[in-house]
Write a structure and sequence with these properties.
Helix 3 packs across helix 10. With 339 residues, the chain is α/β, with parallel strands linked by helices. The protein has 2 domains: 249 residues, 3-Layer(aba) Sandwich (Rossmann fold), CATH 3.40.50.720; 79 residues, TATA-Binding Protein (2-Layer Sandwich), CATH 3.30.310. Helix 7 links the parallel strand 4 and strand 5. Strands 3-2-1-4-5-6-7-8 form an 8-stranded mixed β-sheet, sandwiched between helices. Strands 9-10-14-13-12-11 form a 6-stranded antiparallel β-sheet, with helices on one face.
Length: 339
């Protein structure tokens, strides 16, 4: 064992045997934005042997305030985040094997992505993908660690299928489109990213070294600005839960996925959520007013972001003009509408 991990080996809860387990582990990171980038760096420095990083987006200058793996050149070159992460991790720890996958995580690939992984870490930014990950991990009995952060607030929960409640036990239905704040509408500060990621990664390390006895087994909530820290103990799985109770994995079913379509000849994509929703356009406009010039009537709202024009309807449909790439359109929808 080289000197790189000597201080970590001195930590009795890990030791040399634990370090060997880390080096022989494989972790899936779903998303490599703020949380995912933090996860990746900490796990690479800790010596987790294989990191499978999946992300559909590219680096932008707005990412640099909180996405610690990336630099200005990555944003100038618009490098895919998974690729930029792999390059940076090679500079941090050349012994780590990084599988960089540029993909939109969806029902068609999630089951293959979690295959052979010891634990799955949530680094995504929307509930659609989290429910998808939950379905796949419950179906295949994979441990995964939910985490979310926005503004100065964050939350995390470690999920052992069949042993602890799953995500749908706690959040039975996915939030309606537009009902949840996003980093692009309410902002985010780096300390909450670091806090949530630290808890998620610590839980992952405990699992990988075989110390499940010291997992927090709760929903942990933090507001670093208001100095508010809460820990809600988890009970048993819900027998009526669609995922872990009834084994109804609707998010793995293509028919239940959001409708996405390239609008022929218009250089535009239409996105619609899987569940019916009614947006409060006035509230959405208020969220967006500090980042875009918004125009609206009683039927729709329109604004621009960079080269894209986004039109949002009251039924939560959106038309993103300026691209024919569904993955780009989904990313914009997630950023500004929030589900």
């Amino acid at each position: 064992m080289n000197e790189r991990y000597s201080r970590q080996i001195l930590f009795n809860a890990i030791g040399q045997s634990g370090q060997e387990k880390l080096l022989n582990s494989r972790v899936l990171l779903v998303g490599c934005g703020a949380l995912g980038a933090s996860h990746a760096e900490m796990l690479a420095r800790a010596g987790v042997g294989i990191l499978r990083i999946v992300d559909r987006d590219f680096v932008e200058f707005t990412n640099l305030q909180r996405q610690t793996l990336f630099k200005e050149d990555d944003a100038r070159d618009r490098l895919p985040k998974a690729v930029a992460a792999k390059t940076r991790i090679a500079e941090i720890n050349s012994e780590i094997n990084v599988e960089a996958i540029i993909a939109d995580v969806n029902y068609s690939n999630i089951e293959s992505l979690i295959e052979n992984c010891d634990v799955v870490l949530d680094g995504t930014d929307n509930f659609q993908i989290r429910y998808l990950v939950n379905d796949a991990c419950v179906k295949h009995s994979k441990v995964w660690i939910y985490g979310a952060a926005v503004s100065s607030y964050g939350t995390t929960m470690t999920i052992f299928p069949g042993e602890t409640p799953c995500l749908r036990c706690v959040f039975e239905e996915m939030p309606d489109a537009g009902s949840s704040p996003t980093c692009d509408t309410t902002g985010v500060i780096m300390p909450i990213i670091a806090t949530v990621s630290a808890v998620q990664v610590t839980e992952a390390i405990k699992i990988l070294v075989g110390r499940r006895d010291v997992l927090h087994r709760s929903i942990m909530q933090f507001d670093v600005w208001l100095n508010d820290w809460q820990k809600i103990k988890l009970g048993s799985p819900n027998a009526d839960c669609k995922a872990c109770g009834l084994n109804e994995f609707e998010f793995l079913n293509a028919e239940s996925q959001e409708f996405s379509a390239v609008l022929c000849g218009r250089d535009a994509v239409q996105i619609a959520p899987p569940n019916p929703a009614t947006l409060d356009l006035k509230t959405l406009a208020e969220k967006l007013k500090n980042i875009a010039a918004v125009s609206q009537n009683e039927y729709l709202l329109r604004f621009s972001s960079g080269d894209y024009e986004i039109t949002v309807f009251r039924d939560a449909r959106a038309i993103i003009r300026g691209t024919d790439d569904i993955a780009v359109a989904r990313s914009l929808y997630s950023k500004f509408i929030g589900a």
